[in-house]
Write the structure tokens for this entry.
Amino acid sequence: MSAEIKEALLKLIETIDKKPQVATSVFRASAYSEQDSFAVRSQIRGFSTTLDEPLELGGTDTGPNPVELLLAALGGCQEIVYRAYAAVMGLKIDRIEVHAKGYLDLRGLLNLAEVPAGFSRVSFTTQVVSDEPEEKIRQLAEMVEKHCPVMDSLMRAVEVSGKVEIKSASNPVDTPCVVLTEIPGK
């Protein structure tokens, strides 16, 4: 598999090197909720998954909640970037595990105190199982920490914008009414 990963990445690098304009990508995800519960369907490309809250937070526990998915995205992205750079560097990695934790004060979510609604801190431990020299794994880890898109997105301010529209339930083909056009960044 490493040879296929390396070949795909080198081909992508060559393509972007020749045509830098193709480097900019837009990723999309949508979420839908049509029931009176916290269960939400998320659609990403051809994949569909359920997001929900655990029972103790009022959900039905039919799937992970959004902040758990954020932690999983960090771990998954780290693992993918480890595999990518290891393949390009010619390193054999037997196993990668990322264990992430997010610390969240529910008072922010519930409007009980003036504290952030999101994570105040995220930590992770990455375990790399390999017989490669420690220095090579250290170099690999430095590359991953520097180039993991999810890690980068979590560690720096990212511009977020949005709007809120209202559509009529009785006449869904009507043009939606925009009630909030600017969601201010923090």
About this structure: The CA atoms of residues 70 and 140 lie 23 Å apart. The first strand starts at residue 30 and ends at 32. The domain at 2-180 is CATH 3.30.300.20 (GMP Synthetase; Chain A, domain 3).
